[in-house]
């Protein structure tokens, strides 16, 4: 009885996040896994993740590397016979993993999202140089030094913005209202 309660609460948690609604409709046909170009890098395949989620294996699901390897190619989504938006589900699991402090330790993607969010929220735009420098400071400052030659080449070809293009104060307010709304719907800032 206790285990049933735990199971339904994790599935409810996933279902409540936009993109996670379809988790109960899966028939475990494996089409999403067979379609996924990154399934071989995932510790649990997309269909396994759904089965584990429905079995209430919250910690195992949220500490998986699988969702962080999702390329958002949408192959699983367009091929699912049950109309489950597996791509959105993967991103819903990312949100939950970050919120619960269980995001997979070997991926830098949460730090990338954090850096992206900080810049967009405060400036309304993304100056690539500042964004990448901040990302490396959060993760591995030595890597920033190793990437310097690439940055210089990009800069010479006009592919690296150094200056932030700021929004008008009114535009900034509107963008923040959108981001706040996304957070209230389950996004993580
Ligand atoms: S393709 Fe759809 S129904 Fe089949 S296993 Fe994947 S999510 Fe479940
Ligand atoms: S959207 Fe993600 S989970 Fe789906 S097939 Fe592509 S990489 Fe795999």
Explain what the structure shows.
It is built from eleven helices and no strands. The chain is mostly helical. It folds into two domains: 2-99, Fumarate Reductase Iron-sulfur Protein, Chain B, domain 2; 109-184, no CATH class. Helix 7 packs across helix 8 (128-139). The longest helix has 16 residues, at 169-184. The site of one iron/sulfur cluster has 15 residues, from helix 5 and helix 6.
Present the secondary structure layout.
Blueprint: H1 2-15, H2 31-35, H3 46-54, H4 58-62, H5 75-79, H6 86-99, H7 109-123, H8 128-139, H9 141-146, H10 148-156, H11 169-184
One iron/sulfur cluster (SF4) is lined by residues 26-32, 47, 50, 80-82, 84, 86.
Bound molecules: iron/sulfur cluster
Terminal residue distance: 35 Å
Order of helices and strands: HHHHHHHHHHH
CATH-defined superfamily of the largest domain: Alpha-helical ferredoxin
CA-based shape:
globular
CATH class of the largest domain: Mainly Alpha
- Beta-strand portion reads under 5%
Give the helix proportion (percent range): 55-70%
CATH architecture of the largest domain: Orthogonal Bundle
C-alpha Rg, in Å? 19 Å
Structural class: mainly alpha
Say how many strands there are: 0
CATH third-tier fold name of the largest domain: Fumarate Reductase Iron-sulfur Protein, Chain B, domain 2
- Overall mean pLDDT: 85
Domain unit count: 2
Largest sheet: none
- Number of contiguous helices: 11
Q: What brief labels describe this structure?
A:
189 residues, disordered N terminus, binds iron/sulfur cluster, mainly alpha, Fumarate Reductase Iron-sulfur Protein, Chain B, domain 2
